[in-house]
Amino acid sequence: MELTHYFRGEIKNMSNRGMLIVLSGPSGVGKGTVRKAIFEQDDNKFHYSISMTTRAMRPGEVNGRDYFFVSKEQFENEIATGGMLEYARYVDNYYGTPLKYVNEMLDSGKDVFLEIEVNGAMQVREKCPDGLFIFLTPPDLMELRHRIIERGTDDLATIDKRMEKAVDEIEMMQNYDYAVVNDEVPSAVEKIKTIIRAERWRVKRFLPDYKKQLGDVLK
Ligand SMILES: Nc1nc2c(ncn2[C@@H]2O[C@H](COP(=O)(O)OP(=O)(O)O)[C@@H](O)[C@H]2O)c(=O)[nH]1
Ligand SMILES: Nc1ncnc2c1ncn2[C@@H]1O[C@H](COP(=O)(O)OP(=O)(O)O)[C@@H](O)[C@H]1O
């Protein structure tokens, strides 16, 4: 993906490409909760990329809203045909981001928001180095375990699997642009929104092709 620029026409000849925002962190930290809180705000302008997964639907979940729930064969077919921006196997299931939606949104100048686990986030970092990578981290491990138990979606064996993975995942924080502690949801939401606002003005998003423009100016 090309390096892109933001300004939405404020500077002429600039790309109008949207911004790719990646929220990641260990399972149970509150990624889904924080993401939903951001999207429930009236002024939300981000476009959420709905992931594809092979895991079973949980009570209350809706196909095409929470995830696209597919079979292992369908998912593997998407991988084989280049349909995924990234994917990961996580606790015995596949999770991934369909490429088409992300590309179409970014191309039309929309900001796309991904909420994904850390291995997938690192694949996106390779492909889209100009994305914004935010790591959501728990206040401490006891609190993380407590949240996973409270959520009540996993049996104890799965929780232990998730906790072991969580420690490895938290160590990947160093590969991110920002870390946000999810102590209270509203405060984490505000921090994330502040980071995104500030990042719009990041220099590398504004590298227009001045050499090319100079050719036109001197004509
Ligand atoms: N790599 C990747 N991870 C995803 C994607 N969608 C969701 N995940 C992550 O997969 C993990 C498990 O998700 P899920 O089974 O819904 O459980 P929960 O988010 O922990 O409630 C979480 O860390 C999600 O953020 C995706 O498209 N790609
Ligand atoms: N800031 C917070 N304080 C207390 N509990 C939280 C907070 N954020 C999320 N939770 C709770 O923690 C559990 C895990 O949150 P969830 O959003 O499912 O995590 P993730 O998507 O990262 O796996 C849920 O029960 C959620 O209500």
From TrEMBL:
Residues of the Guanylate kinase-like domain: 18-197
Domain of life of the organism encoding this protein: Bacteria
Indicate which residues the UniProt annotation says bind ATP: 25-32
Primary residence: cytoplasm
What InterPro entries does this protein map onto?
GK/Ca_channel_bsu, Guanylate_kin-like_dom, Guanylate_kinase, Guanylate_kinase_CS, P-loop_NTPase
Q: What is its EC number?
A: 2.7.4.8
Which SUPFAM superfamilies does its entry note? Answer: P-loop containing nucleoside triphosphate hydrolases (SSF52540)
What is the uppermost EC class here? transferase
For this record, the Gene Ontology CC terms, alphabetical, are: cytosol
Question: Which catalysed reactions does the entry list for this protein?
Answer: GMP + ATP = GDP + ADP
Keywords of the record, alphabetical order, are: ATP-binding, Cytoplasm, Kinase, Nucleotide-binding, Transferase
Q: Which CDD domains match?
A: GMPK (cd00071)
What the protein does comes down to: Essential for recycling GMP and indirectly, cGMP.
Q: Which family does it belong to?
A: Belongs to the guanylate kinase family.
Q: What is this protein called?
A: Guanylate kinase
